[in-house]
Predict the structure.
Amino acid sequence: MNYSVAPLVLDDLDEIYTYVEDIKGEDAANLVIDDLYNAFAKISSSPGMGHRRQDLTDYDVFFWTALKRFAIVYRKSSPIAIVRVIPWPKMEPVLLTPAGGLWV
């Protein structure tokens, strides 16, 4: 594993899992979480993926879309730091500020 996962990412993944499980069932929820972890690995192997979103944050982080509906927010470091996984419809600048708990 060439990436680290911030504590808030685990909260994000729990929320995503619960949402998908409620709508599509346990198997679908497991598949989504597996796909997100595969996306983390893909980002760590090609850290230039994604783009910056200065309209959302001044932090030096990159955004990459996974499964067409999630923004994986990561910081180029060694190892790559996954700092948030947020559904695009819920994306707000406040989620990417110290008050929103970008990372600890």
Observations:
- Strands lie at 3-5, 62-66, 70-75, 80-87.
- The first helix runs from residue 7 to 24.
- Helices lie at 7-24, 26-45.
- The mean pLDDT is 84.
